Amino acid sequence: MSTTDIGPKGSATKAGGAVVGHVDHRTGATTGIGWFLKRNIPGETSWFQTLGFAAMAVFGLQAVTGIVLAMYYKPDPTTAYGSIRHITNDVTWGWLVRGMHKWGASAMIIVVFLHMARVFIFGSYKYPRELTWVTGALLLIMVMFMGLTGYLLVWDQKAYWATVVAMNITASAPIIGPYIADILRGGTTFNSDTLSRFYAIHMLVIPGGIATFIGLHLFLVSKLGISEPPWSKRSTRARRAEEAAARAAARQRGPRGRHEVTVDPEPQTLTAEAGQ
Amino acid sequence: MNRADQEAYRRDYAQAKKEGKPFYPYAIYKDHVVAVLVFAGIIGMAIWQRVGVGPPVYSATSTFEPRPEWYFYFLFQLLKIFKNQTALVPVIMATFVIPNVLMVLLLATPFIDRRAERRISKRPFALSVAILAFMGMAWLTYQGETGATPTVGATTIPFTGITPGSAAAAGETVYLTEGCSSCHMVKGVGGQVGPNLTTIGTAGKSATYSGKLPVPVPGATGPTYSGANWFVLHTECPTCAKPGSSMPAFASLSATDLQNLATFLNGLGTTYK
User: Fold this and answer.
1) Closest CA of chain A from B114, distance in Å
2) What does the buried/exposed string (b/e) look like for A108-140 if buried means 16 or more CB atoms within 10 Å of the residue's CB?
3) Which residues of A touch B103 (CB under 8 A)?
4) B95 in reach of chain A (CB within 8 A)
5) A180-220 pLDDT, tens per residue?
6) Is B24 within 8 Å of A77 when comparing Cβ atoms?
7) Cβ-count burial of B60 within 10 angstroms (0-12 exposed, 13-18 middle, 19+ buried)?
């Protein structure tokens, strides 16, 4: 405790402060969190730029509802179907948690696709955010695999046969197809270990991958900054000023130089295409 | 993007940040508004559209359809376009080539489009790609949703030419009770996941397979399987009879059932119409 502290303090407050101070001194947490929260972002951001956070929030919801479902689900071919019935019909609010997990999966796909569309339309994947896009695309692929592996766990006719067909399609791919299918099924055919294998992939392998890549994605987003909408008032103003300066320079240079210098603010082909 | 463009972008973005607002509370507040709306949507759907439980695996029903989740319909529909495989449109296009090419293109997007321009109005090619990709996926998803509505749960198929008590009649029973009609259509009855079998007997199927059949069927001995024997081979081991087939193997049927089923299938379109 420093000597500039004024007034009496309870021992609990002192102890709490000491713990926080200790952790902060070793980790720099206050500085880090302060930087993260107080760092500037461009003044004009679009509502469409909230979809990435929404996707992360849905991942959190899927994790929580998934954990609750895992408390009642039995990944065994003989009991899986019964445990799903039990969750749906008997467990208090089980139907709601299962419903939220199922609809959350659909919401995840929609939100992630809209997020990707936003990044594409805004051109946000361009320099310097190329790797942010790559990590995001890998997240999309992992999310699709979550859908594939989670679908089987219900263990009803539709889920079972749809997954059998999906695995046969995987196995039909050249060279590595059969190996991937064997790894996913835990054998050359669909067998009694396939369900628990899908459960482990759905519960442990892919969520670990998604969490890791969300971390990388967020690191890049905060390091490189939130992109500014390309049609923001500020950038339009800046572009106009630059163009005006270029024109003025060209006017000045023109008569004195050996040949007339024309500075075109836009490459010619682009202006022509945009006019169509 | 050349070095000058990159530098210009960095300078411009630094200026945007300088004139900007702090992340907290401006971005965080917007993020949470949207996240709460999304959560409300999920909870609303969970209450409004209750998630049910279908029939258990291996129950003798055909009132189901082996369809994936709606977000895989575009791949599922792609498979249907290529399912009647020929040398020109091999099924591998739908199962492997197209999905993987799209995946690589998706991952490589920032390295393919390296131009500095970010305004979509000045990126007509990128805009066309986005619209085409969206419309293509939306169309395939819609087709997968509406096209695959089968007349499931049928107990009979309106046939002429099947004598009650014959091998073909027994084969028809196997066909209907083992769930074949969940994926296959015969005379308007059944699903559309697999090929339509109404005239499959006229296709002149034949294959060479030198391995052993999982369930030995009298008369069906290799290495050449044609006519009814081809159907025995295909039912027990689809990929042995037709490489690249994604049909599940039905090697759990008895030899008699297999024989009857093969008789029935081999006569479809010729004897049984």
Assistant:
1) 7
2) bbbbbbebbebbbbbbbbbbbbbebbbbbbbbb
3) 141
4) yes
5) 999 999 988 888 899 999 999 999 999 999 999 999 999 99
6) no
7) exposed
Residues 151-180 of B with CB under 8 A from A: 179
ipTM of the complex: 0.86
Q: Do B45 and A103 touch (CB under 8 A)?
A: yes
Determine, for residues A156 and B56 on separate chains, whether the beta-carbon distance falls below 8 Å. Answer: yes
Q: Quick: pLDDT tens for B98-122.
A: 999 999 999 999 999 999 999 999 9
Cβ-Cβ contacts under 8 Å for B92 (sequence gap 6 or more):
A172, A173, A174, B244
**Which chain B positions have a beta carbon within 8 Å of A178's beta carbon?**
none
The reply to whether B61 falls in a domain is no
Render A193-242 in DSSP notation, one character per residue. THHHHHHHIIIIIHHHHHHHHHHHHHHHHHHH-PPPPTT-HHHHHHHHHH
- For B218, the domain range is 167-266
Asked, for residue B271, whether it belongs to a domain, the answer is no
Q: What spatial distance separates the first Cα and last Cα of chain B, rounded to whole Å?
A: 65
The answer to whether residues B254 and B186 belong to one domain is yes
Check which CATH number belongs to the domain holding B208 and give it: 1.10.760.10
- From the list A53, A104, A276, the residue facing B42 with the nearest CB is A104
Mutation choice for B interface testing from A68, A126, A148 by most B CBs within 10 A: A126
